[in-house]
Amino acid sequence: MLETSARLLRLLSLLQTPREWSGAELAAQLAVDVRTVRRDIDKLRALGYPVDATAGAAGYRLGAGAQLPPLLLDDEEAVAVAMGLRTAAGGTIAGIEESSLRALAKLERVLPSRLRHRVTALQTATVAVPDGGPRVDPDTLTAIAAAIRDQHRLRFDYRTHDGESSRRTTEPHRLVHIGRRWYLTGWDVDREDWRTYRVDRLTPRIPTGPRFTPREAPDAAAQVSRGVTTAPYRYQARITLLTSVERAAELIAPTVGVLEAVDPDTCILHTGADSLDALAVHVAGFGFDFRILEPPELAAHLRELATRLHRAAG
Fold first, then answer.
1. Partners of 260 in the β-ladder
2. By the 8 A CB rule, do 48 and 69 touch?
3. Range 98-133 burial, b when 16+ CB lie within 10 A, else e
4. Cα separation of 270 and 236, whole Å?
5. Is the peptide bond before 295 cis (omega within 30 degrees of 0)?
6. Tell me, what DSSP letter sits at residue 213?
7. What radius of gyration do the chain's Cα atoms show?
8. pTM, two decimal places
């Protein structure tokens, strides 16, 4: 049987998982009886941990409290949090750099030596390249995330690429972070269609709208990737790559195009560009054999480019 202090830590670790535990389940995990579990639950509550009990089912879960209680992290979670805070300190969310550094300093002070060495090694070996992308207000992200969680319509002012402003009402679906930018996907109520919005170009209006019933939604990541790699461009291309989708994904980022598997040895790339030269040079540099499906003018342009390159090679 575990000592009381070790048992309390083990109990706290179990309660921090996103599920509800019955007294009997906790007793089995801790190798004690249900009465001991009840006493340990009372001790955790006395220490400030808000343990909620479900009436009738004798179920327990860790609830939200008025104050943030200490969290119990295993080794892998502690390393992940430390690296996440370090990344956030130089990320694309405006205003959280200082708070991320403060939280990181607190965490590193209490890390065991074995974990501190792991985190230090990762930090030493990792170099972050400043991306120079648009900064997003964390309050904006929080407001959007809350509307998604609560299934409330989101009203916001939106600024297009051309600088025009409009008011939008959406049923928000997901926040997507791709490349240097944050995007919101949602059902545009007025346009009756799924749309993608740049988060740095929107300003939420408070309060949010009424609740809505979520509808069947497209894959948010694929929707954003397709929107940023094809829709904004003059030429939209579909190209068959004679390689597996897994191998293609190693070289083609989601910000470049959307990959669609055909069979184990073939996939289709959906991409776009404002010039045929850019498209031709780009796909030729992947290192795969390929076939142009559309647009037809890209195939003709590739033949002209091949002729010029052949002459240049003598």
1. 268
2. yes
3. eebeebbeebbeebeeebbebbeeeeeeeeeeeeee
4. 7
5. yes
6. P
7. 26
8. 0.57
Structure tokens, 46: 């006395």
Q: Give the tokens for residue 245.
A: 């989708």
Residue 131 near residue 175, CB atoms below 8 Å: no
Dist CA 195 CA 227 (whole Å): 9
Cα distances (Å, whole numbers) of residue 208 to 155, 193, 214, 228, 291: 6, 20, 16, 27, 48
SS in 3 state form for 50-86? CEEEECCCCEEEECCCCCCCCCCCCHHHHHHHHHHHH
| Number of residues that make up the chain | 314
The amino acid present at 49, given as its one-letter code, is Y
Tens-digit pLDDT profile for residues 278-292: 888 888 888 889 999
Q: How far is CA 80 from the centre of its chain?
A: 15
Residues 122-171: pLDDT tens digits?
777 776 665 556 778 878 888 888 888 889 999 999 998 778 889 999 99
Distance CA 310, CA 314 (A): 7
Amino acid type, 174: R
